[in-house]
């Protein structure tokens, strides 16, 4: 049996990739190596550890019980190695590497295009691999290390995570021009009593937020017509199917003065949602992530949504 000192970081990366993908062939393609090379390295790793890591099946490769137990340790080792690299870059003032960031579909597409160019200018060796997901999935994937950090809407479960509040985003009432309230100079809470409001389907946190807002206003959400995206909601309003609430970043990005819509506030009602960056408390890159959070706060005036309120 080989000495444990012969274990390599490359073998751990191979082990993790096969576990993530579920097949030797798919892992080899992602890693850019031949399948025989990958198989030989895993065999060497298994011999060194004295345990079998994968069961070959017709559908792919299934991690053994030992592999499942070893995976969290593998994650910690990789995080510590990244910490080693980050610390070295800290001495030179540099920031480098590729990090996986998860974002919500109701925020990421309307904030990131406004701030990423400046982030890239400030951190030129930094790469952010962006993936969208609903908040529940983002939280799970962050904890399982599929994401390095997430940009999401509060609340975010805090156990094991460091959360950096970013900003408060107002919600806007959006109504079609032929609606009974379209020409009313000031819309009050009582004007919305009994109104049916369009919202996203219940898989989105935004559905719950709008539902709770409607409850405070005496309005109801339409369950027979639910949107799959903010764009869908806007189009449904344009077609006269109802009214809705849309985030101000989306409004600033996607709604034009020529659109047949009225965008307004509800007098005396605070309608908003809070956003934050979050990462694992043990992440070796947490100093970098704190700098990113501060950078985003500084860049908010460039987004075009003038009512955003910075949070600390």
Automatic annotation (TrEMBL):
PROSITE patterns: HTH_LYSR. Pfam families: HTH_1 (PF00126), LysR_substrate (PF03466). It comes from Candidatus Paraluminiphilus aquimaris. PANTHER family: HYDROGEN PEROXIDE-INDUCIBLE GENES ACTIVATOR, TRANSCRIPTIONAL DUAL REGULATOR HCAR-RELATED. The lineage of its organism: Bacteria, Pseudomonadati, Pseudomonadota, Gammaproteobacteria, Cellvibrionales. Residues 7-64 form the HTH lysR-type domain. The keyword Hydrolase does not apply. This is Hydrogen peroxide-inducible genes activator. Belongs to the LysR transcriptional regulatory family. Keywords: Activator, DNA-binding, Transcription, Transcription regulation.
């Amino acid at each position: 049996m080989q000495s444990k000192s012969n274990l390599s970081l490359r073998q751990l990366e191979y082990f993790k990739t096969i576990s993530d993908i579920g097949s030797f062939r798919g892992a080899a393609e992602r890693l850019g190596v031949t399948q025989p090379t990958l198989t030989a390295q895993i065999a060497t790793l298994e011999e060194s550890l004295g345990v079998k890591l994968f069961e070959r099946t017709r559908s792919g490769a299934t991690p053994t019980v030992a592999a499942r137990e070893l995976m969290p340790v593998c994650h910690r080792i990789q995080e510590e190695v990244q910490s080693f690299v980050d610390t070295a870059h800290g001495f030179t003032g540099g920031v480098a590497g590729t990090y996986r960031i998860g974002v919500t579909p109701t925020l990421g597409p309307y904030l990131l295009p406004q701030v990423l160019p400046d982030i890239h200018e400030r951190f030129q060796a930094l790469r952010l691999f962006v993936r969208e997901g609903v908040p529940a999935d983002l939280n799970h994937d962050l904890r399982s290390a599929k994401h390095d950090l997430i940009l999401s809407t509060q609340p975010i479960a805090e156990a094991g995570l460091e959360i950096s509040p970013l900003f408060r985003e107002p919600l806007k009432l959006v109504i079609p021009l032929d609606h009974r309230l379209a020409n009313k100079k000031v819309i009050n809470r009582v004007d919305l009593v009994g109104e049916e409001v369009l919202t996203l389907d219940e898989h989105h946190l935004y559905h719950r937020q709008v539902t709770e807002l409607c409850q405070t206003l005496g309005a109801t959400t339409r369950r027979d017509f639910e949107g799959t995206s903010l764009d869908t909601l806007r189009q449904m309003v344009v077609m006269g199917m109802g009214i809705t609430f849309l985030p101000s970043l989306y409004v600033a990005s996607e709604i034009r003065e020529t659109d047949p819509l009225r965008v307004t506030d509800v007098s005396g009602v605070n309608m908003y949602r809070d956003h934050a960056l979050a990462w694992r408390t043990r992440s070796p890159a947490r100093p970098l992530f704190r700098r990113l959070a501060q950078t985003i706060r500084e860049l908010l005036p460039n987004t075009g949504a003038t009512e955003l309120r910075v949070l600390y």
